[in-house]
Amino acid sequence: xxxxxxxxxxxxxxxxxxxxxxxxxxxxxxxxxxxxxxxxxxxxxxxxxxxxxxxxxxxxxxxxxxxxxxxxxxxxxxxxxxxxxxxxxxxxxxxxxxxxxxxxxxxxxxxxxxxxxxxxxxxxxxxxxxxxxxxxxxxxxxxxxxxxxxxxxxxxxxxxxxxxxxxxxxxxxxxxxxxxxxxxxxxxxxxxxxxxxxxxxxxxxxxxxxxxxxxxxxxxxxxxxxxxxxxxxxxxxxxxxxxxxxxxxxxxxxxxxxxxxxxxxxxxxxxxxxxxxxxxxxxxxxxxxxxxxxxxxxxxxxxxxxxxxxxxxxxxxxxxxxxxxxxxxxxxxxxxxxxxxxxxxxxxxxxxxxxxxxxxxxxxxxxxxxxxxxxxxxxxxxxxxxxxxxxxxxxxxxxxxxxxxxxxxxxxxxxxxxxxxxxxxxxxxxxxxxxxxxxxxxxxxxxxxxxxxxxxxxxxxxxxxxx
Length: 467
Known about the structure:
alpha/beta; eleven-stranded mixed sheet; 14 helices; elongated; Alpha/beta hydrolase family protein; AB_hydrolase_fold; hydrolase; hydrolase activity
């Protein structure tokens, strides 16, 4: 259903393989108990000499047969669970191999050896892994393409009525509906193909960009005047804020969507004098030559793995606020802002401890000490460019992927209804209202900010110099 919210760790590995194997062991133990009970029943005839009692033997044998069926079913269940554990481990091994760098020879060898041992034990695993991956790929874009004929008369009854009233109109509707589906399915295949190449981003230096990034005040280097291609940032006044974002919905609501500024940086001074920072980054702003948050910046980061002016502007805003390699930073970004957040987290320039992305076109591969929260709509073509993310997830064990389908069949709609921030904010609210205990861990992550002795917020507005 379109209103359902799914909360997972991300990736296609739904359950830890070792936990599955433990479950399979417990099921086999229960099968053993049933087998013992059946054997005890079958031993009764040899212990009974009384003829009247012997008349109950047919019922006893019937009960033993039913117990045999239960034992067989439990054994099949245990075998299936064990096989699924092997499939999940194989998928994890292959995903980890794909993420290794060229110099990780020893790690690659160890992973291949474990993969070979699994396949030697069950030749079906490779085909099962392919089916699992195909099913996962379909699921991450659920709702992108129309599932049936469009119009106000859906279903067999409506089709029959329309056919009776006007065969020509029925034929036209069928052709248009077929074209709509074919176009959407083709776009989905293209999106999936592009995502396979660019959606999951491994840590690697971004190609540098030409030009300077300058603050529009005395902090810029003396004697340096902006030239065409440079980025100039205006800093707004620092404003005192009463509290930090206590929930994920609170964090998303602080993204400067619809404001002139593209970045907001909150500074928290803790009781020991240390500082913490949270940066909120908006998405694409348009095609203006002066706008760093442009479609060209999207392509530069996504396709070329290169610094974009928007990326450089966010990094400079954080540096201007006082953030550095040793100061904890959280990043919250929408759309292009989510891509910037993920790439900044990989850069190592800042001590990034949490990354929240909303409708981001990428999934960064993050270390296991970074909390990663990705909010994606399965019918959002922008989020679809991430391809569902890494098959084995990313970030800390508390990391989450929150998914919902909001506009089924409208993946190719030029208005991109599933990408609207309001819809994503509603998805977050529903996730928090679900009662899922994992959402509380996100609130705990932000709760440390409320122990600060002072809290301020500063807006930054960047523009590209064109002449």
